[in-house]
Design goal:
single chain; mainly alpha; 0% strand
C-alpha cells in the first residue's frame, strides 16, 4: 500500500508536535495556533530554532527550506510551513 501525505490538518498537528520537540518547548499542541507567528512570536523561537525546524522538515518530509525570503515566508506560522510542505510535495 502506498503511503499518502497527511491531510492539511493532520500535517499541522504533526508540525506543531515537531516544533515542540525540536525547540524543547514545554507546551501542548493545542497551545499553538495555526496562524501564530513562529520566529519572534509568543513561542519565543529564534534563528537557531528556525534552523532546527528547517532540518527536521527536510528529514521528515523531504522538503528543503532555503534561506532568506523563502525561509521567512515558510517559517511565518504553522499554516505557512504546512503550505510550503504541501506545495513542494505537489
Amino acid at each position: 500500500m502506498e503511503s499518502t501525505s497527511p491531510s492539511p490538518d493532520a500535517l499541522k498537528r504533526e508540525l506543531k508536535a515537531m516544533i515542540i520537540e525540536e525547540c524543547d518547548k514545554d507546551i501542548e499542541i493545542d497551545d499553538i495556533s495555526d496562524d501564530e507567528r513562529l520566529i519572534g512570536g509568543p513561542l519565543e523561537l529564534d534563528s537557531l530554532d528556525a534552523l532546527q525546524i528547517s532540518m527536521a522538515v527536510k528529514s521528515r518530509y523531504g522538503v528543503r527550506i532555503e534561506g532568506g525570503p523563502e525561509a521567512r515566508r515558510a517559517l511565518q506560522s504553522v499554516q505557512s510551513l504546512a503550505d510550503t510542505i504541501l506545495a513542494a510535495q505537489g
